[in-house]
Amino acid sequence: MRASSVLGACLSVSLCAAAIAGAASTSASAAAPASGPAIVPATTGADGERTLALTLDQCRRLALEKNLTIRASRFDPIISDAAVQVAIAQAFDPTLSGRISGAQSKPPARFVQSIDPKDSSVIIVPRAVPKQQQVVSSVSIDKMLVSGTTVSVGIDNSWSHQSGLNSMNSSVGLTVRQPLLQGFGRDITESSIRIARTNYDISESRLRQTAQTTIRQVETAYWNLVLAIERLDVARLSQQEAQQLLERSRARAAAGAQAVSEVIQAEEAVATAEQEIIAGEAAIRDAEDQLKQLTNLVGEPGGWDLRVMPADTPQVGGVIPSIDTLVARAFRYRPDFYQAQRTLQTRTLTVELRENRLKPRLDAVADLTIADGGPTYRESLDDLPRAEYPSWTARLEFSLPIGNRAAQGDYQQALLAQRQAELGLQAVRLQVYADVRAAARRVNTTRDQINAARVTTQLRQENLQNEEERLRLGLSTNYDVIQFERLLAQARRSFLQARIDHQQALLTLEESTGLLLQARNITID
Which residues lie closer than 8 Å to 295 by C-beta, 6 or more apart? Predict the structure, then answer.
């Protein structure tokens, strides 16, 4: 069974719909284009085995839709986006506060001096103190502005009852607090939001990197399966050649034209070829399981027992761009380089925030209050719109922890983390150069190896034919022919390996430049 002779197929109708539509277009999920060949259910052979033929593009689609690693990674940007919303809320969402309280007191009687009317003597007389009652309520709303200014607006009401009289007081207050040193400025107030947004960008990049890694693993497993199938074909071809040699040897030995030892050598060659067939069949099963696991076909009923047949064959790539062009692309598209850059930005923002906290706290505070009062609630409000009874205060508040060691320690940690991120970025930059150069060199090397292996296979085929002719003329032995057969089988395997190595080299080059997803028209929604 050759890979190029198999048509596309799929495991079930549900997989058909998923693969045709590409990956689900949910928030922060990998998606593939909907174009491509249709997928049909798996076929069942006469032996009862179900066979699923897949193109490489269909395997990518299944991985983007079904792979558990990608599905789990899709949550990371969503979680990071929630962290951005939390940072915005903590910084700028207004806070509504309310309070209501009641009190009642019964003071003890007071003793006062009085004149006895009978004899005009001074006596001590107890005098009752009336019960006192009070209810106080307040409502306020606080909000911080981008400049760091905190504005608070509140309404206070109080009711009191004493000596049979009711009294109502109301006031509206406005308090403005402006930091002058620590906490001043938009860069400081929005620093946590900017850090959260940078972390969100990093999580998106990591999702793309996970998708890229998964696609690389899928394609590697796909070509490994192609290689295993074609190596099995080579083993079967070698077994056929060894069997033909055995049959000719038996006929020649029966005619007395060849020694019995020659027949034994031919039988040994057949047995060796059969061992290679058994090992080749096991290698196919291993490669199938790897591909089924990456595409999560094993999640379907009977997925582990499904036979997978690749429908694509390896192709030789064209001329690659210059190293400088490839490196420039890598610096633009590689997820790990982008993440290192954004991590450095996060560390820099943290340094700025921690440096601001080294400053003392100096706030300018202004209070404006408009008050009114009366025997009833309505009368306690009627003069508020006219601001008949305003009052205001202004003050400066200063505070600084003695030693300020906590802020200094945090600042030193931030500086060290920033330096660490700088070195990490430099390391990734060097790694980009090394990866791109090695990948480009590997592409050219494997292309040359394909040509060399093709020529070697042709020459060994001719050598085997010549040796078989010499054997027919009695000028050679079975041992010599078997050796040439083994050399030819080795050349065939080397040719197959060179083609797969070239595919892997092209894949590595695309991954090293960060263009693996773009080259396959895979986007992140």
Answer: 59, 62, 63, 66, 67, 218
SS3 292: helix
Burial class (CB in 10 A: 0-12, 13-18, 19+), 340: buried
Residue in this structure with the two tokens 């006929």, named with its chain if needed: 251
- 114 in the same domain as 163: yes
Indicate whether 20 pLDDT > 50.
no
Rounded Cα gap, residues 446 and 220, in angstroms = 16
For residues 427 and 340, give the distance between their C-alpha atoms in angstroms, rounded to a whole number: 9
CA gap 474, 481 in Å, rounded: 12
Enter the pTM of the model.
0.78
The two structure tokens encoding residue 124: 């001590």
**Cα separation values, 154 from 111, 178, 365, 370, 385, Å:** 42, 18, 16, 11, 15
Q: Are residues 110 and 164 in the same domain?
A: yes
Backbone φ/ψ region at 372: left (φ over 0), alpha (ψ -120 to 50), beta: beta
Task: Round to whole Å and give the CA distance between 479 and 483.
Answer: 6
Residue at 372 is within a domain: yes
Q: 132-144 and 95-105 as β-strands: parallel, antiparallel, unpaired? A: antiparallel
Same domain, 171 and 110: yes
**Domain-terminating residue out of 67, 83, 118:** 67
Q: How many residues comprise the chain?
A: 525
Is residue 113 assigned to a domain?
yes
Would the pLDDT of 28 be above 60? no
And the tokens for 325? 């062009």
Query: Nearest Cα to 524, choosing from 67, 68, 30, 63?
Result: 30
Q: How many helices (H) and strands (E) does the chain have?
A: 12, 13
Write phi, then psi, for 152 (nearest 5 degrees): -130, 130
What pLDDT is recorded for position 47?
65
Quote the CA–CA distance of 27 and 78 in Å, as a whole number: 7
pLDDT for residue 98 is more than 60: yes
pLDDT for the residue 224: 95
Sign of CA dihedral 339, 344, 348, 350: positive
Domain presence at residue 88: no
The total number of structural domains that make up the chain: 2
- In one letter, which amino acid is 388? E
Does 174 share its domain with 110? Answer: yes
Q: State which H helix or E strand residue 129 sits in.
A: none
- Which of 283, 284, 277, 266 is CA-nearest to residue 235? 277
Rounded to whole angstroms, how far apart are CA atoms 146 and 233?
Answer: 71
In 295-425, DSSP assigns E strands to: 307-310, 361-374, 390-399
Q: Could you tell me if 134 and 63 lie in one domain? A: no
Domain coverage including residue 390: 97-184+362-399
**Cα–Cα distance between 257 and 251 in angstroms, integer?**
9
Contact status, residue 27 vs residue 21, Cβ threshold 8 Å: no
State whether residue 37 is helix, strand or coil: coil
Are 40 and 101 part of one and the same domain? no
